[in-house]
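Deliverable D2.4 — example input (structure tokens):
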């Protein structure tokens, strides 16, 4: 899943909204959108697009029948610990996205953007057996977000735009080869601000 376009927008918006020029617009009709607005997942480009209310309703589909976009849900659910060790991902800050074709990809943030791994399908099925909530993930638009770095223990079902925001935080705050002193407190703050919503 390519997050470059979404990352660029999120980094710009998280740098602060200094005035009218910094206000976001719907990427389908160019109408201004409020800070809290819906997102559509562009299936062809594999990226998130900002949408005004009418475009979110008009263009959202279920991904079947040739629709170009899927409405990114708002659901966030904090999970008990999910055993991800067998999924073959060598990092502790990662998100797992199921796809409509049954595959699952894992992505971890880096200073250059998201790193990507293919997850073994059988290993994912075993993880889902241990955590039945994973079977409810909407393909392409929801993810399992995990943070076990530096003693953290966060496991969430989140919309993919939350994952892109997390990647943007790492990219924005990373300094030097090891990340510097700002990146991990910023990641911890990101997770502290996550709130459950259905």
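Example output (designed residues):
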């Amino acid at each position: 899943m390519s997050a470059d376009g979404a990352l660029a927008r999120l980094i710009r918006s998280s740098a602060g909204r200094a005035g009218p020029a910094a206000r976001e617009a719907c990427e389908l009709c160019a109408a201004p959108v409020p800070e809290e607005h819906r997102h559509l997942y562009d299936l062809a480009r594999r990226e998130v697009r900002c949408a005004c209310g009418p475009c979110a309703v008009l263009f959202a589909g279920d991904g079947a029948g040739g629709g170009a976009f899927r409405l990114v849900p708002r659901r966030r659910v904090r999970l008990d610990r999910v055993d991800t060790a067998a999924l073959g991902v060598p990092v502790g800050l990662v998100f797992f996205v199921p796809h409509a074709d049954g595959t699952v990809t894992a992505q971890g943030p880096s200073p250059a953007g998201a790193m990507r791994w293919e997850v073994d399908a059988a290993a994912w099925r075993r993880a889902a057996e241990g955590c039945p909530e994973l079977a409810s993930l909407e393909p392409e638009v929801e993810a399992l977000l995990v943070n076990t770095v530096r003693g953290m223990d966060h496991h969430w079902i989140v919309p993919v735009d939350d994952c892109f925001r997390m990647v943007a935080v790492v990219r924005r705050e990373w300094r030097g080869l090891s990340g510097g002193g700002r990146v991990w407190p910023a990641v911890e703050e990101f997770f502290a601000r996550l709130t459950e919503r259905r």
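Strands lie at 38-42, 47-51, 60-61, 69-71, 77-78, 93-98, 104-110, 113-119, 142-147, 154-159.
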